[in-house]
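USER: My hope is that you can spare some time for a protein that puzzles me. I am handing you a single protein, as its sequence and its fold in C-alpha cell form. Walk me, if you will, through where the backbone shape changes along the chain. The protein I mean follows directly.
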Amino acid sequence: MNKQVNAQRGRPVATERAGVVMTRVGVNLGAEITGVDLRRPLPNEQFNAIEEALVENELIIFRDQDITSENLMAFGRRFGDLTVHPFSPNEAKAPELIKFRNDETTPPFGTDVWHSDETFRAEPPMATVLCAKEVPTIGGDTMFVSMAAAYDGLSDRMQQFISGLEAVHDFKPFKALFGTSEEERKNLQRYELLYPPQVHPVVRIHPVSRRKVLFVNPQFTIGIKGMDERESRMLLDTLFHQALIPEYQFRHHWAPHTIIMWDNRSTQHYAVHDYYPQRRYMERVTIKGGPVTGVERADPESVRKVKFVVTGNVDTHGGHKARQFRREMSDAKN
C-alpha cells in the first residue's frame, strides 16, 4: 500500500512504494521520482511502482541520473520493445537510440509544435524517454500537456460530437527532409509506401487508466475522416487549441543528467526553440505501442452533466473573465 510521506498544507503530496518516492509537481500531470538509480537494474517492485507512476502522472522526472546510452536503452526495454524512428538522427550500431545534437551548425528541426510522437504509425509509441546530456544556460525548455485533461475541459456537446470521429495522421513535416532530385523523390515515395496515412480515433481510450484522451495533434493530424476540408480545419483548430490552455500544461526546465519519461498515449509535448545557437545535446528512446482504441459515438442521453460552481471572486483580465471553479460530476438523469 502506498504510504503518504508529505501532506503539509500547500505542498506537493508524495507517496512511497518499494523505496520509490513519487512527488507530484504539476496539477494535471507530472511527478518527480526519487529513490532509484537507473545505472543499475531495477528490482521488479521498483519497476512496477515506476510503471504505475507513469500511468497515474502521465509524465515522470528523474534527476541526477548520470547514465550511459546503454543504461537508457536498458531502462526503456523494461517497458517494451524499442522502436526505430525512420526520420530522426540515430546511431548506426544502435538505431533505437536517437541523438539530438543541436548547436550553431545544427539548428533544431520540427519539434517546436505540439505533438504526440509518431502518430503517423499504425501503432504509435506508448512512451518516450529523454535524457539531457548538455543543456543551454538559458532556454531549451520542454512543455507538456495532458490531453486527458484537455478532453475533460471540452464542453459536453463537443465531447458528444467528437465521440466516434476518426482523424487522418501523416508524416507531413518530415517530407521537408527530402530533396527535389529524382532520386530523392523516389526515396520519398518509398517512405510514403512504408508509412501511408493512418486513421486513428479523435478520442482514444487509454489502455490502462481507461481515461478518455483527445488524440489529435497539429504536427501529424491532417484531417477528419468524412468531413470536407473547411469543416475539418475548423474542428481541428478548435481541438488543437486545447493543448494551448496553460492549466493543462507542465513546463520543464532541463538540467544535465535529468531524465523525463512521458506517456505518449495521453500527452503531447513541445520543445521550445529559444536556445539556438546554444548547444543542446539529448538522447532518446521510444517504446513500442499498440493499437489505438477509440470510443463509440455517444448517446446524447448518456452524456454526463458537468456543473461549474464559482468558489472565488470574478475578475477580468485582458477582456476575459477569470474565475476559480471546481468541477462536480453527476450522472445524466432524464
Notes: Residues 149 and 248 are 6 Å apart (CA to CA). The domain at 3-301 is CATH 3.60.130.10 (Double-stranded beta-helix).
